[in-house]
Amino acid sequence: MDTVKIAVIGLGYVGLPLARLFSTKYTTIGFDMNRARVDALMAGHDATLEVSDDLLQSAIANGFKCTADVEDIRDCNFYVVAVPTPVDKNHNPDLTPLYGASTTVGKVISKGDIVVYESTVYPGVTEDECIPVVEKVSGLRFNIDFFAGYSPERINPGDKLHTVEKIKKVTSGSTPEIGKKVDEVYASVITAGTHLAPTIKVAEAAKVIENSQRDINIAFVNELSKIFTRMGIDTQDVLEAASTKWNFLPFKPGLVGGHCIGVDPYYLAQCAQTFGYNPEIILAGRRMNDGMGEYVANQVVKLMLKKGIQVLNSNILILGFTFKENCPDVRNTKVIDIYKALQQYNVNITVYDPWANSDIVKAEYGITVINQVPKIVFDCAILAVAHNEFRTIEISKLCFPKSVIFDVKGIWSISEIDGRL
């Protein structure tokens, strides 16, 4: 592999920024099965907004190419798989995208090539699940004819400060020599540096516990929020006071969705169960966080009843639908849980989100999201996502004087609201 030629498979929130970065140093081709996505990228626009139009168009001008034709990546020798790893409705890991990507790699990989997986998985998936697919399709032998690595993604959607090159990268290889080669390729573009893990399984485990740790910490403060609400104490005030100690961890209560924190713990939990261990803390954290949408809805209804507002047929505004602020990503958003819980009270719900793609929301969740400030006045408003647009919105003009205003994210003044987590 004197000359590295890279193919990045999967051009979503993870794959595209990485492919663009690789293209600054290596011949790089991005592959995605979604032709509409490929066409839009080659036209110079990334709908996820992770790569700016200027950066993308500059990369294309300098030779970066996106394709939906598998033959276009046949001449590559360093394959990077960056496809999603979701869970199904029962919270079981869904490896279907990984199997599909591994099949794609198997069709084009040649002797001496390396395939590196970036998708979040539990320890063992790369070597026990993905590589056998590559072997079967290609007819090549693992660690004899071709090699593998694992370098878990650390993309933070919507974060323009901690971009891919500024986040330290964990790397690994199927042999010590391949580990060094994989590390060298990544280190050549990751300015924050790399950490070469001793094995692929160690790298897989490191990734899956990163977000599991955050999930458990958020679950703890969500539980505190429930306790302090019953006691009539403002949780945000408590956390602010506690944060004056140097080693207090500054986690805040809220909804836990997205493709990482709300998913990764299930991968670790299933893995643990296959080894005969029931992970009590991990699953308890998941139960707590998965129930926060319904909890918010119930708190809102209680506040409406206390104010004498008739809940039946009331008009409720939900501000925000994406899984986090200032990005269009709606994958595994927990705002839908607030919406569904409120529906049970036969209310009229309007969801306003200037960032969300209304067509994608309609297709994935079956609900309507508007992208402009609504024109009617509401009996209740729920701030669910802390978009910058909502920090300065004149919420009083959207509500009646006695309306309930609930701030899930804790960004509005306590004097302007009726409740928050």
How would you explain this protein's 3D organization?
Helix 4 crosses helix 5 (125-138). The strands form 3 sheets. The protein has a 6-stranded parallel β-sheet, sandwiched between helices. It has helices at 15-22, 35-42, 53-61, 96-108, 125-138, 176-187, 200-231, 235-242, 264-274, 280-290, 292-306, 335-343, 358-365, 388-391, and strands at 5-9, 27-31, 65-67, 78-81, 114-117, 147-150, 169-171, 194-196, 315-319, 348-352, 369-370, 378-383, 399-407, 419-420. The chain is built from 14 helices and 14 strands. The mean pLDDT is 94. It is α/β, with parallel strands linked by helices and 421 residues long. The radius of gyration is 23 Å and the shape is globular. The longest helix is centred in the middle third of the chain and has 32 residues, at 200-231.
Brief characterization of the structure:
By secondary structure, the protein is α/β, with parallel strands linked by helices. It is 38% helix and 14% strand. The protein has helices at 15-22, 35-42, 53-61, 96-108, 125-138, 176-187, 200-231, 235-242, 264-274, 280-290, 292-306, 335-343, 358-365, 388-391, and strands at 5-9, 27-31, 65-67, 78-81, 114-117, 147-150, 169-171, 194-196, 315-319, 348-352, 369-370, 378-383, 399-407, 419-420.
